[in-house]
Write a structure and sequence with these properties.
Helices cover 69% and strands 1% of the residues. It has 483 residues and is mainly α. It has a two-stranded antiparallel ribbon with strand order 1-2. α1 crosses α2 and α3 (64-78) runs parallel beside α10.
């Protein structure tokens, strides 16, 4: 951070000269977001093209959103200007972003569905293998406890507890399971409704309750799900087990291919979103200044050098729209060297300024509106979200939310338990246990101390009379120790 900005930030902390310091802070931050997003986008758009042409040299059936994105980029950034045209571009890009999020939600739901069936098949595997030497129950429990509690970091310990819990044989009653689920939902009372909604969404996806019309957009996955649903796992043959295992492997490749694609596209969308949001506000004299060792103020990126970024973006865009698989060439690669090191420096500067955002937002909201800085400050707050590590963050989440009331808790509990009861009544016992294991590993840790955790592990193993299932659980959990 240069000395001028340090002084501005000190004034903001002290509440001094705010009519001068707030405009400088906000304008510098939106300018910094703009440059960071454009450098980041240049690098990512370039590498995304390379990934796409290598992965799909002959095109792809799901490239509709990518084509729409490339047309938006050409029209509203490469050929657009700040103003009403930019607002139109932002609206269209926002809709495209939501479409990408919807795709990822469907793919996440299918991933969780097939993880449940993977759990079932893993516990069948050892029916068709020769018995192997295993540690005694006492030795295994000791190893598991040593693995879980080998650190004083409670976050790590809780993560390991959930990891082990998700693989142990499930022998608790449905009543006890439902009590744990109800208790976990009740913890959200008086909290933000969005937090409860996120928890319920996670529970529904990992228990195969999430179901939308959009899931029909993947008939291959939909039909595969029906095939697994109709299987009799208690009577399964070795040949059928091997066939279903291969189908799981194929489905994983199918889903991961699409997840990788939409992750890459979403990062491009988020960067362009920031570039469009900031375009009406960035300095005409161009750029964010740093202080060199001599105390001189120098542009990090010279205004004329921004043209190099546009050249790369425009070149990649033309390649995409040509719908070929031609390499980008050495000249384009040489231009990309210009970005080297700049993203890291911009990120470091951003982190310093972003540290003041909560205070500015919390203390000076009314003053910012009074200074006519509301629109640009809203763009700053949106940019912060878009450039965060949460690619699929909800941009429409309200800052001040409704709190969860008692009736909200009761309604959520009744709904989830009713749907799970129905699902369990329609499912084989092995599938029911897989769903219980998958959801238990997502709940807050319900053990009060190490003794309770140890007793649970011992009880799970003792009550499991299926040797193949017990062997599978032990092997899977032991792999955690090895890794």
């Amino acid at each position: 951070m240069n000395k001028h900005l340090r002084a501005v930030c000190m004034d903001i902390e002290k509440g001094q000269e705010l009519d001068r310091s707030l405009p400088v802070f906000i304008n510098q931050l939106i300018n910094l977001y703009s440059q960071y997003a454009e450098v980041k986008f240049t690098i990512h758009y370039y590498t995304f093209y390379e990934y796409y042409t290598e992965t799909f040299p002959n095109g792809w059936e799901e490239d509709g959103l990518l084509e729409e994105f490339n047309l938006l980029l050409k029209e509203y950034f490469l050929g657009g200007e700040a103003g009403s045209k930019t607002e139109e571009g932002i609206a269209r890009l926002h809709a495209l972003r939501n479409s990408c999020i919807q795709k990822m939600q469907v793919l996440t739901a299918y991933t969780d569905i097939f993880q449940v069936y993977e759990y079932v098949l893993n516990r069948i595997e050892h029916r068709f293998k020769e018995a192997e030497k295993e540690p005694s129950a006492e030795e295994f429990v000791q190893s598991a406890m040593a693995y879980i509690f080998d650190t004083q970091d409670n976050v790590v310990v809780n993560g390991k507890i959930k990891e082990v819990l998700g693989q142990l044989p499930i022998r608790m009653t449905k009543q006890r399971y439902f009590e744990l689920l109800k208790s976990s939902i009740a913890l959200y009372k008086d909290g933000d409704k969005s937090a409860l909604d996120s928890f319920l969404y996670m529970i529904k996806t990992c228990s195969m309750l999430y179901d939308t019309e959009e899931m029909k957009e993947y008939p291959y996955l939909l039909n595969l799900r029906k095939e697994f649903e109709g299987e009799k796992y208690k009577e399964i043959t070795k040949e059928r087990y091997e066939e279903l295992t291969k189908l799981l492997e194929v489905s994983a490749v199918y889903i991961n291919t699409r997840v990788d694609f939409y992750f890459g596209l979403q990062e491009c969308i988020n960067d362009l979103y920031v570039m469009l949001l900031s375009s009406p506000y960035i300095y005409m004299e161009g750029g964010y200044k740093l202080e060199n060792l001599k105390g001189e103020m120098k542009y990090l990126i010279l205004p004329q050098d921004m043209d190099k970024l546009r050249d790369i973006i425009g070149g990649v865009n033309n390649k995409f729209l040509a719908k070929g698989a031609e390499p980008l060439g050495e000249e384009m690669e040489e231009k990309l060297f210009y970005t080297e090191g700049k993203q890291e420096v911009l990120m470091e500067e951003l982190s310093k300024l972003e540290a003041y955002l909560p205070e500015v937002k919390g203390r000076y909201g009314d003053l910012i509106e009074g200074l006519m800085l509301g629109p640009v400050f809203n763009s700053v707050l949106l940019s912060e979200k878009l450039l965060s590590s949460s690619l699929f963050i909800d941009l429409e989440k309200a800052d001040k939310e409704e709190k969860v009331q008692e009736e909200d808790i009761i309604k959520a509990q009744d709904e989830v338990l009713s749907e799970l009861s129905r699902l369990f009544s329609e499912s084989e016992r092995a599938v029911t246990r897989a769903i219980m294991a998958n959801t238990l590993s997502k709940l807050p840790v319900f053990f009060k101390n190490q003794s309770e955790m140890k007793e649970y592990i011992e009880s799970s193993l003792e009550q499991c009379q299926d040797q193949a299932e017990k062997t599978a659980c032990i092997h899977i959990i032991q792999s955690f120790f090895d890794n």
